[in-house]
User: Fold these one by one.
Assistant:
Number 1:
Amino acid sequence: MTETEDSFLHLTDIPDRTPLVSVTGADDMHAALAGLQARWGMVAPVDLEPGVPGWLVLGHREICDVMRNEGLFSRDPRNWRWNYERLLPAGSSLRSMLSPGRRAAYYEDGPEHRRLRAPLDDAFGSLDEPRTAAMVREICEGLIGQFGPRGRADLISEYAIAVSFLSVAGMFGFREKDGLALLRCVGEIFGHGGDPETGLAEMDRIVLDHVRERRARPTEDLTTVLAAHPAFEEDEEVVHSLVVAICAANEMLVSWIAATLRLIMTDPRYTGRVSGPRRGLDDALDETLWREPPIANLPARFALTDCELGGRVVREGDALVMGVAAANADPRVHTEDEWFETGNRSHVSFGVGPHACPAPRAGRLIVKIAVESLVQRLDLRLAGPDVTWAPSPWSRYPAAMPVVFTPTTGAAAHGRRRVPREPASSIGGA
Ligand code: HEM
């Protein structure tokens, strides 16, 4: 079939759609993305899950066009032609991820999105960063105190997951017991053990109790700001917004921490340089956002009408996944000049347009302290040849990262915080 002929084919009629998970799971993800682009151009036919078709948008300009144009590309899953109530298999993580009818900014367009988004922007705008930084540092110290004397650890299950979740739960003011229950729910929602729909229902229940408690007894946390926000019309909206924020944050933070640690331990430009307040850590955080973005493929937008994108005909109701990793590597946003590259902030790792992440500062604060605390205390070395990855259509979520280091002495006093015991594969992966 020629390029021109297959440009007009309907998504479901293209037989050789690439499974998204084979891209994120490839040994060399960037080579796999380049292969897709060479075959299809900037918009490639993929399967989100087996037999569930969608387009993967690979170009930077094309992604910005889609994410900034909500009049043409909706966030609301009710605009997906795929009747997933009937067609998606039970247990599919797409069911809970793209639940129609949930009342949060994430699922809305236009004025309704702006109304539900305002409380999030106000809450993160009011975040007490020094206090949050102190809390995250204490969490990191506690965890390092637990495994430090051992001289070896798995930095995913014993550190990245726990730091991310405890920090986010702390910002929203959850007790540790509820935070750990929420962590189990997130694992279920993203299809890593248990039933996604049960996990979502349980998460809604825990969060609703918490919202009611904060309304009755306000305190200094983000839930208190959200629970009192005049833009919300009912508790369901507060609960659904909080659930989205917790799910979105956890996955991203774990991936970003893991990818930065890996870069620091394996890349000769960083090994031995990133300690203390040196400039190298910020460079490593930025390089990771560009090269190994926490979410490689971002779900999803739904076409509101037949249109053309990147030379391909997209039909009303088609799903489009944003290829963040591909867009970040698009030569059209890079230059050969290292000086210009240093100040280049055009990556799309925090999204663009109305749905761009409301918490990039909070995210960076947590990840930076998590990495800094480790490299200041431990002389980390990977224990094996590399990290193992948990397969997911959306990200190169790390399954394990075993490391060795010189055992710490006198650190056990910090080790009072409990670490979640779930295996890494049971958490995240969306
Ligand atoms: C404290 C940690 C974080 C919280 C609470 C958080 C929360 C959220 C929320 C609530 C949204 C949905 C906004 C909307 O639809 O209007 C969102 C979107 C997003 N977040 Fe974050 N986030 C966090 C960290 C991160 C990190 C570390 C990254 C990646 C580096 C990230 C990347 C994104 C992206 C790409 C979107 C856009 C989704 C889309 O347009 O489809 N987030 N985040």
Number 2:
Amino acid sequence: MTLNIGVLGLGSVFAGPYSSLITKLAHEGRVRLVAGYDPDAGKRQAAVDRFGMDTAFETPAELVAREDLDIVLVLTSMNEHGALAKAALEAGKHVLVEKPMATSADEAVELQRLAATSPGHLVCAPHVVLSPTYRRMHEKVRTGEIGDLYLGRARYGWSGPWWGKWFYEQGGGALFDLGVYNLTSLCGFFGSVRRVTAMMGVAIPKREAEGEVVSVDAEDNAHIVLDFGAGRFASIATGFTIQKYRSPAVELYGSTGTLQLLGDDWAPEGFEQWSNDRGSWELFGETDPHWPWTDGLRHLVECIENGTETVTRPEHALHALEVMLAAKRSAAEGRVVEVTSTFPDLVYAPTAADGGAAARAKHDPRSE
Ligand SMILES: NC(=O)c1ccc[n+]([C@@H]2O[C@H](COP(=O)([O-])OP(=O)(O)OC[C@H]3O[C@@H](n4cnc5c(N)ncnc54)[C@H](O)[C@@H]3O)[C@@H](O)[C@H]2O)c1
């Protein structure tokens, strides 16, 4: 089976990381890049020149209506994600949507509902929980190797993008763009957040983007504290305000040990473990230094091929969005904000009880 891919948004992540993974999967005979849409005529032409794909669409709706497409990738600016992913799910496609899955709670709830009732899988970035390093750390946490998990700390940031004004407009900002990685990672370890409190603001009010000086309307600097209940907390520092760092990306403190993820959670370099029993640090090197942060696409293809459920769940992405919206409210109103959504724990070896037929029947429109 070769799966046909259509892409909405032919910007930098398409031209770089996603297209290189697509090329690899295409060499393996598993996918074919057939169609793309972007309102920018120059990007459409570049996609035709490089990949020979069909870009003759007037609207995203025309692309998702194309019957021969199996998978739609939503790689646009963030404010577009919700509506485009909805249209693709409604058309019966499997969908991968970049982060965040939507910029409003209503859109995200609708996506989760559609993912449960429509034939297609919905895979939401970031795909951090799929990395070999994350999986090994998760197993250590769940099997009690560091005891009860009490405290966490994570950070991710850089000096900020220059190629899109939308990063600095409402619906953009450092938390949606960067902090979402740490949040997805921490929730995967701790479970659902109950309450959040945050300091967020605009540290650099003018920036250069798309060759112009723009006003920054979305927070570019944030510090967030998460309450997971039972006295368990974690914090995230994120911003378009960071030049360099040499600290672990994610630190987990348990009753008998510590885990520290090295590198970034979207580009891990292994991890270190402290055990009270051993009385020493142990280094676990990266087992796949070439793991790509676009791995959700490989995972989606594999789930379609095998008729299995996805490890990454839309509920996890919806929860992350609710926490981020709560953090924005907390910062704006100067108070602690409750979070009500929950998501199921990660299950890394999902198998359909009947050998995959049930999952295929739900998820492959062609079997209906
Ligand atoms: N750039 C990164 O390093 C990076 C990394 C990981 C994830 N992401 C995520 O990937 C997404 C895209 O980021 P990017 O850096 O490629 O941005 P970009 O600005 O380079 O590209 C986005 C593209 O979407 C197009 N677009 C806007 N509205 C559209 C619509 N309705 N239909 C089709 N296309 C539309 C724009 O014209 C633009 O070409 C964002 O959600 C971002 O958060 C980016």
